[in-house]
Specification:
Blueprint (H helix, E strand, L loop, with lengths): L1 E6 H6 L4 E4 L11 H16 L4 E13 L4 E7 L1 H20 L3 H6 L1 H4 L6 H4 L2 E2 L2 H11 L11 H18 L4 H9 L1 E8 L7 H7 L9 H10 L5 H16 L4 H12 L9 H11 L4 H19 L7 H12 L6 H12 L5 H21 L6 H12 L9 H11 L9 H10 L6 H14 L11 E4 L7 H7 L3 H8 L6 E4 L10 H11 L7 H4 L6 H18 L30 E8 L2 E4 L3 H15 L1 H9 L11 E2 L8 E3 L6 E3 L4 H15 L6 E7 L8
Parallel strand pairs: 2-4, 2-5, 3-6
Antiparallel strand pairs: 1-6, 3-4, 7-8, 9-10, 9-14, 11-13, 12-13
């Protein structure tokens, strides 16, 4: 590897008989006008102050070299090189308009290889999606350029700001001088001497756009592959089209949470992906094949897909509306079973409807969602650990949930109905719309689209004197208790606002502007609107909802004796003297450990990956799990035996007896909102207590 500080234009771009090639695994040209604005301001500043300006690193591999022509493959820096060439073309075109013959003669040497074939003439060969607009620009085919191309947008921007600088008295030569003052670090890789482009690429701290985890994964799979063109065309591009580039990181995270036992998040996906790839002996071809297969399944989770029936698409749409994307790692193998005809469409429909009902009940009854990621990550393996359960697929899932007694259990009918009647539903607007439209669409011939509706309050959000009089002397209590509850809410179209109108006027508005017949029949039939009418309407609607989102009874459920276990929990801290743990289970995942210290650290690292914000807040406040003794902090000096959690800078106290280790775990699980039953461990007896281990 050779690294030198060089002038971007004079030492790199100006060289003749040379073409920079952007390989297929690189992302598209993504620089926006804001990036160009910053670069142009730096160029003007470099001219005004007559000083050089450092603009990052350019890394390339020596490709095909001969006495007649050189091809260099850009690893990092394509965004800056492309932008500078676009700017130079704008300066050239402006010079032609102004008859500046000196620049007309000089600048083509920066853009073109004279006396070369048409394919080699332009000094940059971008990725395929950018190659056509870039070629149009360089060949002056402006009318054929798409106005949506970043190349076209940035060229037009440069033409505009160049004109603006000319109006201030700065010349084209001055702007070009500023461009020539741009300095870069040129890093030339030589694979024959053992330089690994991927390793170097990952270590670069570029001044360009940040690479996403999807960009890094793409480069990892394509950079060193001899068939990179084929893999890109036949696998990567279809994956991008199927999922959409903006959702790739989510897809890879969910894919790996399904395939790997480790807890994967968007912050660690790239490193975990590489580990998974290497440990399981994938080739680039086999990994791309697998990613393409699952992308076709995943696409139906995030977009409606005509490969599946209306009923399946409807349930998946409901899960999206309820914001239940944490279920996707579980659904990937479920849909794989369906694809492989291990379950039929009827079973799949029942499974999806089950989880719509389950999700809705959790949301309405206020069960925190922080345990869902762990639940769904391990759920498939827990339910189908016995492969015989796949023969009665829906029954196995139903049986599993009905036997859970943790926080993730299915809320009962009574809990569901009580929450529907008395809880604040308006704060969950998407869920509220979903419920109200479900009631209406269930008994109507005309389906109402949830997107076109407005949630309205019958008793208004601001009480007028008329409403206060109608509600009676206890109007404040009635208003605070029932305002945002099911019984007081309806839907109207046309962005109607019922506002503070009297009950009688609201009835007229609802009668003329709302398409909701079933929802409004009780409102329109009343002469007054008080606590009694609101609560009674809520109970009527809750009964309808319960009928729509019910769970059928199973004649003979499958027994899962190991679901809740008969092991030690945090309530058994006093029983841990003279013992040591051999394993623990958290949200269904099993972890082998050799000490209470290791159990504590391993669990805390798992929790940190699930949600680092909670631990960060505790550490910032020097958290004390018991009495006044600090047990978590960013300051390791205040702890007796500090242990860092991952590379977070957060330290926990490990100078604890077995009793206090378990108590510490109990306190942190409470902070995260996990039920005691989500964590249990097995132990063996020892000669003495594992104090300070």
């Amino acid at each position: 590897m050779k690294a030198d500080s060089v002038w971007l234009v004079k030492d790199m771009i100006e060289k003749s008989k040379r073409q920079f090639i952007v390989p297929v695994y690189q992302r598209n040209y993504d620089w926006s006008i804001s990036n160009c604005k910053k670069l142009f301001e730096d160029i003007i500043l470099a001219f005004n102050e007559d000083r050089k300006h450092f603009t990052g690193t350019i890394v390339y591999i020596k490709g095909s070299h001969s006495s007649k022509f050189d091809e260099d493959i850009i690893i990092d820096g394509q965004q800056r090189i492309t932008t500078i060439l676009i700017l130079l073309k704008a300066i050239l075109d402006k010079a032609i308009l102004l008859s500046d013959y000196k620049l007309q003669s000089e600048i083509p040497d920066y853009l073109f290889n004279r006396d070369s074939t048409d394919e080699m003439k332009i000094k940059l060969k971008p990725v395929k999606s950018d190659s056509i607009p870039f070629s149009f620009l360089m060949k002056n085919h402006h009318d054929e350029m798409s106005s949506e191309s970043n190349i076209s947008k940035n060229y037009n921007y440069f033409m505009k700001v160049i004109e603006n600088e000319l109006s201030k008295g700065i010349s084209l030569s001055d702007i070009l001088y500023g461009v020539k003052r741009l300095e870069v670090v040129e890093i030339i890789l030589d694979t024959d001497k053992g330089d690994d482009p991927q390793t170097i690429f990952e270590s670069i701290n570029s001044t360009g756009l940040d690479l996403s985890a999807a960009d890094l994964i793409r480069n990892f799979l394509l950079m060193n592959d001899g068939d990179q063109e084929k893999l890109y065309e036949e696998y990567w591009l279809p994956i991008e089209r199927i999922i959409s580039k903006g959702l790739l990181v989510d897809y890879f995270t969910d894919y790996l949470n399904f395939k790997s036992k480790e807890n994967i998040s968007s912050s660690n996906i790239y490193e975990k992906f590489k580990d998974f790839y290497k440990k399981n002996n994938y080739s680039n071809q086999s990994m791309m094949t697998e990613l393409k297969y699952y992308s076709n399944i995943y696409s139906v989770f995030v977009f409606e897909n005509n490969r599946y029936s209306h009923e399946i698409n409807k349930s998946l749409s409901d899960l999206r509306l309820l914001d239940q994307s944490t279920i996707y790692p579980f659904l990937l193998p479920v849909f794989e079973d369906f694809d492989k005809k291990q379950i039929n469409e009827y079973e799949l429909q029942r499974v999806l409807k089950f989880f719509v009902n389950y999700s809705l009940r959790r949301i309405i009854t206020g069960v925190p969602s922080n345990s869902l990621r762990g639940l769904y990550k391990t759920l498939y393996n827990r339910v189908f650990k016995d492969s015989e359960n796949k023969k009665t697929f829906y029954k196995a899932i139903h049986s599993f949930f009905m036997q859970l007694n943790t926080k993730d259990r299915v809320p009962s009918d009574d809990e569901f109905v009580h929450s529907l009647v008395y809880n604040n539903l308006y704060q969950k607007k998407n869920v509220c719309k979903y419920l109200l439209t479900s009631i209406e669409n269930d008994g109507s011939n005309e389906t109402i689209d949830v997107k076109s509706l407005t949630i309205e309050h019958v008793m208004p959000q601001s009480l007028t004197s008329k409403w206060k009089a109608d509600l009676g002397s206890e109007y404040e209590d009635v208003w605070s208790k029932y305002l945002h509850t099911l019984g007081n809410l309806t839907i109207t179209g046309y962005n109607s606002e019922l506002g503070n109108d009297s009950f009688e006027n609201k009835q007229d508005i609802i009668r003329t502007r709302s398409k909701a017949r079933i929802l409004n029949e009780d409102i329109l039939s009343k002469s007054t609107w008080s606590a009694y009418e609101i609560e009674n309407r809520a109970k009527i609607l809750a009964k309808k909802i319960l009928q729509m989102f019910h769970f059928e009874e199973l004649d003979i459920p499958i027994v899962f004796s190991e679901i809740n276990g008969n092991s030690f929990t945090t309530s058994d801290a006093e029983k841990t003297a003279y013992t040591k743990p051999i394993d623990f289970y958290f949200c269904g995942d099993k972890f082998y450990v050799k000490s209470y210290k290791q159990m504590t650290v391993t669990l805390f690292e798992t929790l940190f990956l699930l949600d680092d914000s909670i631990m960060v807040k505790l550490a910032e406040n020097n958290y004390a799990a018991f009495s006044s003794r600090i047990t978590m902090s960013y300051d390791k000096k205040i702890l007796r035996n500090p242990q860092e959690i991952k590379d977070s800078g957060i330290f926990i106290e490990t100078n604890l007896s077995s009793y206090y280790h378990v108590l510490f775990i109990e306190k942190i699980l409470e902070e995260y909102g996990f039920d005691e039953s989500e964590f249990y461990f097995h132990i063996i007896n020892t000669q003495k207590d594992e104090d300070l281990t």
